[in-house]
Amino acid sequence: MCDRTAGPAPEVVVTEVDAEVIGGGTADTDPLPAALAATPTGRSWVAWDGTDDRIHLARLDCEDRIEGEPIALEGIDLQDVIADGDGVTVLITREGACGDGPLCGGSTSPCATMHMVRFDDSGAQVWERQVTNLGNGLAGYDDGARFVWWYQHHGRLASDGANTAAYFGVAVTVANGDCVDIHQGDRMQVVDADGNLADHPDAFDVGCSHSWTTRIAWNPDRDEFGMVCATDDGCRIAVPAAGTVAEGACDGTLFGGDLVTAADGGYWTAWSQGGRARLEHFTDGPSDTTVDTGAATDHPHLVGYGEAHMLLAWASGDGIAAQVHSADSGAAAGDAFTIAVPDHPYQAFKAYPDGSVAFPAAGGGGSIRIARVMPLS
């Protein structure tokens, strides 16, 4: 295990990682610069979208510095990365075929495919699996296609220890007479340890309609992959194809933060409306506890922080502000503090087994800055 020093208050350590990573936009349509995954020993895998039009993957040691030779793989957009004791799985998009259609109106591009790619701990590729459904004669503009397009296309990974689930925004192609319409939804697929699509009860073809900020977490207490989305179907934070967690408004400011398991076996999710962040506790449906955090933000992050706490974070000036909250009651604990790296609305903090959390910020000159919040004693 990495030997990271715990303290009575959060301490932030920032490490510069030499990587030629794309920079620029932070909108839902822009590529994701970087993603981070924790290993059971407290080390990391970091993935980044390179300036060479390749996705890169590297191991980090306990000091968050690259060890070994990075891996380069084909991909047009990075989504997420998750690791275990045997290796790492990265979620990426690749180029796909749109076909002829025709569209009933307008235009949409690209017709990309979403893939999980698995590597063992030595960096050798083990398998890859498409989790959209293009190929075998099915193109993006064919009825029934599920592909990744420019709009709200980000995705996240979660694992139950044997299977890995991908939950992501998807384009939904539907026949309309002699042409097709393209709709926006989300999709969750589960892949087993051998790289095969699993017939899993939590998986679905389409969940929320007109959805964004797809979030997923494995809940061992409930033996399920829990999920939430933001959707304009009733303008709310919702469990896909199920109940409302929190009522919102379709004013252009509805944003779902992240999803973590709660101390009682339920869930906490962060979300914002009108530039104000809230925490909601729920189990199967509507929130039973709302915490008005007082954080003025359009894009909150939430991550488990040790066994008893959560960390809420949000953009503040040129950096990130953060506040510890109880994983039981949701109440704030201690003073807010600053993390001196730039924020990105669609990147995620990741929790580590030693009680620390880390965030892979795009640094100056194309590098990555790993911002680690050390464990609490």
What does this structure look like?
This protein is mainly β and 377 residues long. It has one domain (12-373): Methylamine Dehydrogenase, Chain H (7 Propeller). The protein is built from no helices and 28 strands. The strands form 7 sheets. A 4-stranded antiparallel beta sheet has the order 1-28-27-26, with no helix packed on it. The chain has a 4-stranded antiparallel beta sheet with strand order 2-3-4-5, with no helix packed on it. Strands 6-7-8-9 form a 4-stranded antiparallel beta sheet, with no helix packed on it.
Ordered list of secondary-structure elements with their pairings:
Layout: E1 12-17, E2 34-38, E3 44-49, E4 54-60, E5 66-74, E6 77-83, E7 87-94, E8 113-120, E9 125-130, E10 146-147, E11 155-159, E12 164-176, E13 179-191, E14 211-219, E15 224-231, E16 236-238, E17 244-247, E18 255-261, E19 267-273, E20 276-282, E21 289-296, E22 301-305, E23 309-316, E24 319-326, E25 332-339, E26 350-351, E27 357-362, E28 368-373
Organism: Glycomyces albidus
Protein name: WD40 repeat domain-containing protein
Please provide a brief summary of the model:
The chain is an all-beta fold. 0% of the residues lie in helices and 51% in strands.
Uncertain ranges: none
Total of domains: 1
Proportion in helices? under 10%
* Overall spatial form: globular
Strand content: over 45%
Q: How many DSSP H or I helices?
A: 0
- By CATH, the architecture is named 7 Propeller
Radius of gyration: 20 Å
Give the biggest beta sheet. Answer: 4 strands, antiparallel
Q: Helix/strand/pairing class, anyone?
A: mainly beta
The CATH topology name reads Methylamine Dehydrogenase, Chain H
| Termini gap | 17 Å
- CATH class identity: Mainly Beta
Q: Can you say what the CATH homologous superfamily is? A: YVTN repeat-like/Quinoprotein amine dehydrogenase
